[in-house]
Specification:
By secondary structure, the protein is α/β, with parallel strands linked by helices. Helix content is about 50%, strand content about 20%. The protein has a 3-stranded parallel sheet with strand order 1-2-3, with helices on both faces.
Length: about 80
């Protein structure tokens, strides 16, 4: 829906299911936040906002994604529920 946001998470930025979901989100008027490894992959050109963690090693990328994901969740919770 317009005004909604999709968070697409892919270590390489090239996961086909994430890219397909991103394309559908854009078609439906949604914003796309991409969360990837250092190179960004194809998700970089599709995302409205790309968060790249500084690694090219999958386990390290996934560890850093966990921290970023929790930080984003905390910011959303603060915005909508901690007023």
């Amino acid at each position: 829906m317009p005004g909604d946001v999709l968070l697409g998470i892919s270590t390489s930025g090239n996961a086909k299911d994430v890219l397909y979901a991103g394309v559908m989100a854009k078609v439906r008027g949604m914003k796309l936040i991409g969360l990837t490894g250092q190179q960004g992959g194809k998700l970089e050109s599709l995302a409205d906002c790309l968060i790249r963690v500084p690694s090219m090693h999958t386990p390290d990328i996934q560890d850093m994604h966990t921290s970023v994901y929790h930080a984003v969740c905390a910011m959303v919770e603060n915005e909508f529920w901690d007023r």
